[in-house]
Amino acid sequence: MSVSFEDVQKAHEAIKESIIRTPTVKAARLSVHLGIDLYFKLENLQHTNAFKARGALNKLLTLNEEQRKRGVIACSAGNHAQGVAFHAQRLGIPATIVMPNGTPFNKIQKTEDFGAKVVLHGKQFDESVGETLRLAKEKGLTFIHPFDDEAVIAGQGTLGLEMLEQQPGLDVIVVPIGGGGLIAGVATAVKGVKPEIEVIGAQAALYDAVSARNEGRDCPEGGATLAEGIAVKAPAPRNLEVIDRLVDHIYTADESEIESAIFDLLSDEKLVAEGAAGAGLAVIKKNLKRFKGKKVGLVVCGGNIDSRLLSTLILRGLVRDGRITRLRFEIDDTPGQLSDISRIIGEAGANVIEVIHQRMMQSVSLKRAELDVVIEARDKNHVSEIVKTLRESGFKVTATAKV
Length: 403
Fold this sequence. Notes:
Blueprint: H1 5-15, E1 24-26, H2 28-34, E2 37-42, H3 52-60, H4 65-70, E3 72-75, H5 79-91, E4 95-99, H6 105-113, E5 117-120, H7 125-139, E6 142-143, H8 150-166, E7 172-176, H9 181-193, E8 198-204, H10 209-215, H11 237-246, E9 249-253, H12 255-269, H13 275-286, H14 288-291, E10 295-300, H15 307-320, E11 324-332, H16 337-347, E12 351-358, E13 368-376, H17 380-392, E14 396-400
C-alpha cells in the first residue's frame, strides 16, 4: 500500500510542533558558479542533524499506550538511530537501538546520550537486522524500520510540503535515494501540491540499485562510499512503486564527484553536509544542461559526516583547487637557499606551511639536496606564477598536486 498525499498532510499536522521547520535558502555562490537558480532545504539543521527525525517522530506518535510502555527498537548505525532515540526520549518511550559491531564509538555515544539502550550485534547490517527482529519478538517491542514503513515515509515527506510553502516557484527537486523512503515521501508530497513539478533522484554509483533495475542490469556489489546514508542495496518494494510512478528521472554520481560536491557545499556555502547530500549536488553539477533555466531545489538531507573524514576531504579539496601545492626543488646544498626560496614565495603572496629538506636521497648528487616546500596559494594560476618566478631566479622546481 502506497502512502497518500493525505497521509503526508496528516503527518505534517502531527509533527509540526515538535520538529524544526528548516529553511529553504538560495545557494547564492553556487547559483553563480553553476549558472542555475539553486535552493537548499537545510535538513542538516534538523534535530539530530538529519531528516530522519521526521519519520521517526511520526511513527512514534502512532503507537498506542501499551506499545509506548513496552518500547521501540530500531536497527541503525547512523541518522535513523539518533532520530528514534531523540524523540523516544522526549516522549518517554524506552528505545533500543541495534548496531553492528565496529560502529564508531562517537555514533554509539550520541545515541546513548538520547537515552537509548545500544546493543552491538553482527558484523554487517543484515546480521544486525536479524537480531533486531528477534529482540522485537522476544520483548514485544515495536520495530521502527528506517524506510519501509508508511508512517516513516509520510513523516519524511513533510519536508517536501515545507519546501513548496517556502519556495512555491520550484520547478524541480533533487532528492537522494537509499532505501527510497525519503524520495517516496517527498515525491508524494510535492506532486500532490504541484503535479507539474519534476522530481529527480540521486544515487551513489556503488549503490545505484534503482538505476540498475530500470536499465535491466545487475545491481552493483557496493563498497565503501562517502554516501553512507544511501548505501542501500535494495530499496523497499513499496518505495519502488512510488518511484516508478512519481519520480521523473534518476542520475548517479561516483565517489570523486560526491567528494567534490561536499567540498563545494562547505567552501562556497559554508554548509557541513554528509555524503548523501553531496550525491544530490554532484548529480546537479554533472547534468547542468538538464537544470538550466529552472528553479532547482536540493534536499540537503543531513550533516552527520565524521570530523576526521571531513578534515581530510577539506585538505584534498584545497589540493585539487591548487590552493595547497607541493613544490619540489633540487638545490645546491649551501647556506641561504631555503631563505631565498621562502622570500620569493612570500613576496609572491603565498604562504609556506611545510618544508622537508632531504640530504640522504640517492636520487640527487652528493653536493645537492632535495627540498619539498608545501605552499598555500590563491589558485592554480597563482601557483604557475610562483613557479615561473622561481625558475627565472635560477631554481630547478616542479609543482605537484600531491601533498
